[in-house]
Amino acid sequence: MGAGHAHRLYRHGHSPVHGLPPHTKLAAVFAFVVVVVSTPREAMWAFGVYALLLAAVAYAARVPAGFLLKRLLIEVPFVAFAVLMPFVAEGERVEVLGLSLSVNGLWGAWNVLAKGTLGVAASVLLAATTELRELLLGLQRLKLPPLLVQIASFMIRYGDVITDEMRRMRIARQSRGFEAKGVRHWGVLAKSAGALFIRSYERGERVHLAMVSRGYAGSMPVIDEVTASRAQWSYALALPCAALVVCLLGWTA
Protein backbone atom coordinates (compact mmCIF):
# COMPACT_ATOMS: atom_id res chain seq x y z
CA MET A 1 0.00 0.00 0.00
CA GLY A 2 2.99 2.27 0.18
CA ALA A 3 3.92 4.69 2.89
CA GLY A 4 1.49 5.71 5.57
CA HIS A 5 -0.38 9.00 5.41
CA ALA A 6 -1.10 10.97 8.56
CA HIS A 7 -4.38 12.86 8.40
CA ARG A 8 -5.87 15.60 10.52
CA LEU A 9 -8.49 13.35 12.07
CA TYR A 10 -5.88 10.90 13.33
CA ARG A 11 -4.59 11.29 16.89
CA HIS A 12 -1.39 9.42 17.56
CA GLY A 13 -1.54 7.20 20.63
CA HIS A 14 -0.83 3.79 22.11
CA SER A 15 -4.20 2.97 23.61
CA PRO A 16 -5.88 -0.46 23.40
CA VAL A 17 -8.20 0.96 20.72
CA HIS A 18 -5.25 2.16 18.62
CA GLY A 19 -3.73 -1.30 18.84
CA LEU A 20 -6.73 -3.15 17.42
CA PRO A 21 -6.43 -4.43 13.84
CA PRO A 22 -8.13 -2.00 11.43
CA HIS A 23 -10.61 -4.48 9.97
CA THR A 24 -11.99 -5.27 13.43
CA LYS A 25 -12.60 -1.57 14.08
CA LEU A 26 -14.22 -1.11 10.67
CA ALA A 27 -16.56 -4.04 11.28
CA ALA A 28 -17.38 -2.80 14.79
CA VAL A 29 -18.21 0.75 13.64
CA PHE A 30 -20.33 -0.52 10.74
CA ALA A 31 -22.27 -2.87 13.03
CA PHE A 32 -22.72 -0.12 15.62
CA VAL A 33 -24.12 2.31 13.04
CA VAL A 34 -26.52 -0.35 11.73
CA VAL A 35 -27.78 -1.00 15.27
CA VAL A 36 -28.21 2.73 15.96
CA VAL A 37 -30.16 3.26 12.74
CA SER A 38 -32.37 0.26 13.58
CA THR A 39 -33.33 1.69 16.97
CA PRO A 40 -36.86 3.14 17.18
CA ARG A 41 -36.81 6.90 17.46
CA GLU A 42 -39.27 6.80 20.35
CA ALA A 43 -36.67 5.04 22.57
CA MET A 44 -34.93 8.29 23.42
CA TRP A 45 -33.15 6.78 26.42
CA ALA A 46 -31.40 4.28 24.12
CA PHE A 47 -29.57 7.04 22.26
CA GLY A 48 -28.29 8.38 25.57
CA VAL A 49 -26.87 4.93 26.34
CA TYR A 50 -25.24 4.84 22.89
CA ALA A 51 -23.59 8.18 23.63
CA LEU A 52 -22.25 6.79 26.91
CA LEU A 53 -20.85 3.76 25.06
CA LEU A 54 -19.03 6.03 22.62
CA ALA A 55 -17.77 8.13 25.54
CA ALA A 56 -16.35 4.96 27.08
CA VAL A 57 -14.59 4.14 23.80
CA ALA A 58 -13.20 7.68 23.60
CA TYR A 59 -11.92 7.36 27.17
CA ALA A 60 -10.27 4.02 26.39
CA ALA A 61 -8.72 5.54 23.25
CA ARG A 62 -7.57 8.64 25.19
CA VAL A 63 -9.35 10.95 22.73
CA PRO A 64 -10.18 14.28 24.44
CA ALA A 65 -13.75 15.51 24.37
CA GLY A 66 -12.66 18.78 22.73
CA PHE A 67 -10.97 16.90 19.90
CA LEU A 68 -14.12 14.88 19.29
CA LEU A 69 -16.57 17.78 19.55
CA LYS A 70 -14.56 19.98 17.21
CA ARG A 71 -14.67 17.33 14.48
CA LEU A 72 -18.39 16.80 14.98
CA LEU A 73 -18.90 20.22 13.37
CA ILE A 74 -18.83 18.43 10.01
CA GLU A 75 -22.48 17.56 10.54
CA VAL A 76 -23.62 21.19 10.77
CA PRO A 77 -25.43 21.03 7.35
CA PHE A 78 -27.45 18.06 8.58
CA VAL A 79 -28.30 19.92 11.77
CA ALA A 80 -29.59 22.84 9.71
CA PHE A 81 -31.74 20.45 7.68
CA ALA A 82 -33.12 18.83 10.84
CA VAL A 83 -33.98 22.23 12.36
CA LEU A 84 -36.14 23.05 9.35
CA MET A 85 -38.11 19.80 9.42
CA PRO A 86 -40.61 20.78 12.16
CA PHE A 87 -41.53 23.90 10.17
CA VAL A 88 -42.02 22.30 6.73
CA ALA A 89 -43.37 18.84 7.58
CA GLU A 90 -47.10 18.20 7.37
CA GLY A 91 -49.46 16.48 9.78
CA GLU A 92 -50.52 17.17 13.36
CA ARG A 93 -49.28 20.49 14.74
CA VAL A 94 -48.21 21.47 18.24
CA GLU A 95 -47.46 24.86 19.81
CA VAL A 96 -43.89 25.26 21.12
CA LEU A 97 -42.83 28.70 22.40
CA GLY A 98 -45.53 30.29 20.28
CA LEU A 99 -44.44 28.44 17.11
CA SER A 100 -46.63 25.97 15.25
CA LEU A 101 -44.51 22.87 14.67
CA SER A 102 -45.25 19.54 13.06
CA VAL A 103 -45.23 16.55 15.40
CA ASN A 104 -43.87 14.31 12.64
CA GLY A 105 -41.28 16.96 11.85
CA LEU A 106 -40.14 17.07 15.48
CA TRP A 107 -39.74 13.31 15.57
CA GLY A 108 -37.96 13.39 12.22
CA ALA A 109 -35.58 16.12 13.40
CA TRP A 110 -34.79 14.15 16.56
CA ASN A 111 -34.26 11.00 14.50
CA VAL A 112 -31.80 12.72 12.15
CA LEU A 113 -29.91 14.53 14.90
CA ALA A 114 -29.59 11.58 17.26
CA LYS A 115 -28.66 8.92 14.73
CA GLY A 116 -26.56 11.23 12.58
CA THR A 117 -24.56 12.55 15.52
CA LEU A 118 -23.87 9.07 16.87
CA GLY A 119 -22.82 7.83 13.43
CA VAL A 120 -20.48 10.77 12.88
CA ALA A 121 -19.02 10.40 16.38
CA ALA A 122 -18.31 6.71 15.78
CA SER A 123 -16.65 7.55 12.45
CA VAL A 124 -14.54 10.28 14.05
CA LEU A 125 -13.36 7.86 16.74
CA LEU A 126 -12.45 5.35 14.05
CA ALA A 127 -10.46 7.96 12.13
CA ALA A 128 -8.83 9.26 15.32
CA THR A 129 -7.46 5.83 16.20
CA THR A 130 -6.64 4.44 12.74
CA GLU A 131 -4.24 5.76 10.12
CA LEU A 132 -5.39 6.02 6.51
CA ARG A 133 -3.03 3.32 5.38
CA GLU A 134 -4.40 0.98 8.05
CA LEU A 135 -7.96 1.76 6.99
CA LEU A 136 -7.12 0.72 3.43
CA LEU A 137 -5.52 -2.48 4.68
CA GLY A 138 -8.61 -3.12 6.78
CA LEU A 139 -10.90 -2.68 3.80
CA GLN A 140 -8.73 -5.07 1.84
CA ARG A 141 -8.83 -7.57 4.68
CA LEU A 142 -12.64 -7.35 4.74
CA LYS A 143 -12.65 -8.43 1.07
CA LEU A 144 -13.83 -5.14 -0.36
CA PRO A 145 -13.39 -5.25 -4.18
CA PRO A 146 -9.68 -4.61 -4.85
CA LEU A 147 -10.48 -2.00 -7.51
CA LEU A 148 -12.41 0.13 -4.99
CA VAL A 149 -9.54 -0.13 -2.50
CA GLN A 150 -7.08 1.01 -5.16
CA ILE A 151 -9.30 3.94 -6.17
CA ALA A 152 -9.53 5.03 -2.53
CA SER A 153 -5.76 4.64 -2.11
CA PHE A 154 -4.95 6.71 -5.20
CA MET A 155 -7.56 9.32 -4.28
CA ILE A 156 -5.92 9.85 -0.86
CA ARG A 157 -2.44 10.08 -2.31
CA TYR A 158 -3.33 12.37 -5.21
CA GLY A 159 -5.39 14.54 -2.91
CA ASP A 160 -2.19 15.35 -1.04
CA VAL A 161 -0.30 15.91 -4.30
CA ILE A 162 -2.91 18.30 -5.70
CA THR A 163 -3.17 20.18 -2.41
CA ASP A 164 0.60 20.66 -2.33
CA GLU A 165 0.58 21.82 -5.98
CA MET A 166 -2.14 24.36 -5.17
CA ARG A 167 -0.06 25.66 -2.27
CA ARG A 168 3.00 26.15 -4.50
CA MET A 169 0.94 27.96 -7.15
CA ARG A 170 -0.56 30.24 -4.51
CA ILE A 171 2.89 31.10 -3.17
CA ALA A 172 4.09 31.80 -6.73
CA ARG A 173 1.17 34.20 -7.32
CA GLN A 174 1.76 36.00 -4.04
CA SER A 175 5.50 36.32 -4.72
CA ARG A 176 4.57 38.21 -7.92
CA GLY A 177 2.33 40.61 -6.02
CA PHE A 178 -1.00 39.04 -7.00
CA GLU A 179 -3.89 39.23 -4.57
CA ALA A 180 -7.45 38.31 -5.56
CA LYS A 181 -9.73 41.19 -4.54
CA GLY A 182 -12.68 41.02 -6.90
CA VAL A 183 -14.33 39.71 -10.03
CA ARG A 184 -11.65 41.14 -12.30
CA HIS A 185 -9.14 38.70 -10.83
CA TRP A 186 -11.28 35.61 -11.57
CA GLY A 187 -9.54 35.22 -14.92
CA VAL A 188 -6.19 34.66 -13.24
CA LEU A 189 -7.71 32.14 -10.83
CA ALA A 190 -9.39 30.32 -13.74
CA LYS A 191 -6.05 30.07 -15.56
CA SER A 192 -4.47 28.73 -12.37
CA ALA A 193 -7.19 26.09 -12.10
CA GLY A 194 -6.58 25.06 -15.73
CA ALA A 195 -2.83 24.84 -15.14
CA LEU A 196 -3.46 22.77 -12.01
CA PHE A 197 -5.62 20.33 -13.98
CA ILE A 198 -3.00 19.92 -16.71
CA ARG A 199 -0.18 19.43 -14.23
CA SER A 200 -2.20 16.88 -12.25
CA TYR A 201 -3.15 14.98 -15.41
CA GLU A 202 0.44 14.89 -16.65
CA ARG A 203 1.71 13.76 -13.26
CA GLY A 204 -0.91 11.01 -13.18
CA GLU A 205 0.24 9.75 -16.57
CA ARG A 206 3.88 9.72 -15.44
CA VAL A 207 3.01 7.82 -12.27
CA HIS A 208 0.97 5.27 -14.23
CA LEU A 209 3.82 4.69 -16.69
CA ALA A 210 6.23 4.28 -13.78
CA MET A 211 3.91 1.71 -12.17
CA VAL A 212 3.51 -0.25 -15.42
CA SER A 213 7.27 -0.27 -15.95
CA ARG A 214 7.61 -1.84 -12.49
CA GLY A 215 5.18 -4.65 -13.22
CA TYR A 216 1.81 -3.21 -12.21
CA ALA A 217 -0.95 -5.35 -13.73
CA GLY A 218 -4.11 -4.05 -12.08
CA SER A 219 -3.53 -5.06 -8.46
CA MET A 220 -1.36 -3.72 -5.68
CA PRO A 221 0.93 -6.07 -3.74
CA VAL A 222 0.02 -6.72 -0.10
CA ILE A 223 3.06 -5.85 2.00
CA ASP A 224 1.51 -6.24 5.46
CA GLU A 225 -0.84 -9.13 6.16
CA VAL A 226 -3.13 -7.87 8.92
CA THR A 227 -4.62 -10.55 11.17
CA ALA A 228 -6.71 -10.45 14.33
CA SER A 229 -6.97 -12.86 17.23
CA ARG A 230 -10.21 -14.02 18.79
CA ALA A 231 -9.55 -11.77 21.79
CA GLN A 232 -9.10 -8.73 19.54
CA TRP A 233 -12.34 -9.48 17.72
CA SER A 234 -14.14 -9.84 21.07
CA TYR A 235 -12.72 -6.54 22.29
CA ALA A 236 -13.72 -4.71 19.10
CA LEU A 237 -17.22 -6.19 18.91
CA ALA A 238 -18.00 -5.33 22.53
CA LEU A 239 -19.35 -1.94 21.37
CA PRO A 240 -21.87 -3.18 18.77
CA CYS A 241 -22.91 -6.12 20.97
CA ALA A 242 -23.69 -3.81 23.87
CA ALA A 243 -25.54 -1.49 21.47
CA LEU A 244 -27.54 -4.46 20.13
CA VAL A 245 -28.76 -5.29 23.64
CA VAL A 246 -29.87 -1.66 24.06
CA CYS A 247 -31.62 -1.73 20.69
CA LEU A 248 -33.55 -4.91 21.55
CA LEU A 249 -34.63 -3.37 24.86
CA GLY A 250 -35.73 -0.28 22.95
CA TRP A 251 -38.02 -2.36 20.74
CA THR A 252 -39.50 -4.38 23.61
CA ALA A 253 -39.85 -1.59 26.20
Automatic annotation (TrEMBL):
The signal peptide stretch is none
Query: Which membrane topology describes this protein?
Result: Multi-pass membrane protein
Residue ranges of the TM segments: 43-60, 72-89, 109-130, 233-251
Name it: Cobalt ECF transporter T component CbiQ
Which lineage? Answer: Bacteria, Bacillati, Actinomycetota, Actinomycetes, Kitasatosporales
Its main subcellular localisation, reduced to a broad class, is membrane
Which organism's genome codes for this protein? Answer: Streptomyces lancefieldiae
Gene (UniProt): cbiQ
Q: What domain of life does the UniProt record list for this protein's source?
A: Bacteria
Q: Which InterPro entries match?
A: ABC/ECF_trnsptr_transmembrane, ECF_CbiQ, ECF_transporter_component
**Record's keyword terms, sorted:** Cell membrane, Membrane, Transmembrane, Transmembrane helix
Q: Where's it found, cell-wise? A: Cell membrane
